[in-house]
Amino acid sequence: MALDFPFARSIIVVRSETTDKKTGEVSKDTRYFVSSSEPRERTPTQWHALVRGHWGGVEIRNHWRRDALWGEDDSRTRNASALANLALLRNALLALLPEHCGDKPLKEIQEDITPAGSLRLLRSK
């Protein structure tokens, strides 16, 4: 299989099966990951841990913060333009948070990140 990733050395295939507890319905999923590491550089168990660790980190560093700070999961809009614009604003704010909030606890950051505080943060750049 040819890939348009010049440094790709491995393709990792992860197959999973999930059973819905309420209905008993089973769903199967196959996901593909591309890596610059050589295939034999890791065991299957190590590849699995790498994939799980990556997505766990994405959830903690990104999705959880987006929801905790801006209630992203509570958004009811289905307008594609509004969703894209809000995502751009949230991404810009996430990039600015470390510089302006340092190691503040989440509770303090939430108090600072009011709509007015968010605009001040964006204008500071």
Mind sketching the topology for me?
Layout: E1 10-19, E2 26-35, H1 44-70, H2 80-101, H3 106-112, H4 115-123
Antiparallel strand pairs: 1-2
The H-and-E topology, N to C, reads as EEHHHH
Structural class: alpha+beta
Low-confidence stretches: none
Average pLDDT: 86
Largest sheet: 2 strands, antiparallel
Explain this structure.
The structure is a single chain. This protein is of the alpha+beta class and 125 residues long. It is 52% helix and 16% strand. It contains 4 helices and 2 strands, in the order ββαααα. A hairpin with a 6-residue loop joins β1 and β2 (26-35). The mean pLDDT is 86.
Quick summary:
The protein has 125 residues and is of the alpha+beta class.
Distinctive features:
single chain; alpha+beta; 16% strand; 125 residues
